[in-house]
Amino acid sequence: MTKVLTVRIDPALLQKAEARAARLGVDRAQYVRSLIEEDLAAGEGGMPNRFSSDDLAGLYEGTGKPATNQETRNRLRRGR
């Protein structure tokens, strides 16, 4: 037996999703199911545990230490 899933979504995003579903020739529910199925299939190996800090590039002066994820986290905690 199938279950019903209700999702609250911004009207603009819903409009884009419905347009994409129409371009693919499927209804909204089929489109959402396919996205979930694809994501689950791609994520079989699990989510990588990573820290992305591209938006922080150029924000801090260098200290001579390697720019590792841990160093970035420490600098954020210290506020510099």
How many DSSP H or I helices? Answer: 3
Query: What characteristic shape results from the CA principal axes?
Result: elongated
The total domain count is 2
What is the number of strand segments? 0
Overall pLDDT metric: 80
Radius of gyration, rounded? 21 Å
- Name the helicity range: 40-55%
Q: Termini separation (Å)?
A: 55 Å
Summing up helix and strand content along with how strands pair, one would put the structural category as mainly alpha
Residue ranges: pLDDT <50 for 5 or more in a row?
none
Largest sheet: none
Strand fraction: under 5%
Secondary-structure element string: HHH
Topology, please?
Elements: H1 11-24, H2 28-42, H3 69-78
What does this 3D model show about the protein?
The protein folds into two domains: 11-42; 52-80, no CATH class. The protein is elongated and about 55 Å long. The longest helix has 15 residues, at 28-42. With 80 residues, it is mainly alpha-helical. It has three helices and no strands.
Summarize, please.
49% of the residues lie in helices and 0% in strands.
Core attributes:
elongated, mainly alpha, single chain, 3 helices, 80 residues
